[in-house]
Amino acid sequence: TAISTIRNLGEAMEAELKPAGIPTAKALHASGTDEATDDALLHRASAFIAYYVMKMALQSRPWNDCHSAEKAALHQVFKALFAKHRNLNDHGIEKIQDRSGTGRQR
Asked: Is 103 in contact with 94 (CB distance < 8 Å)?
């Protein structure tokens, strides 16, 4: 089944994950949020919001159910995943994250 059958995940998420080798909802459930994000970062830019929306969706929770401490913890995991790929590709991710307010703190 399509990734868009998972509540709160749509065509944009499908487009993000397909090049990373995650074409279906079953494949996404099998890989989980961290591995899917790790794979997506190898293939293209990914944003923190996509990471935590995917995390909530795979837990059958509304996308906006992630608050304060949990969101901060998820951000740390995302930053660690992102750091692994910082020098592996150049997709302008830092500029994208700076525009969205999730970039490196200076």
From this structure: yes
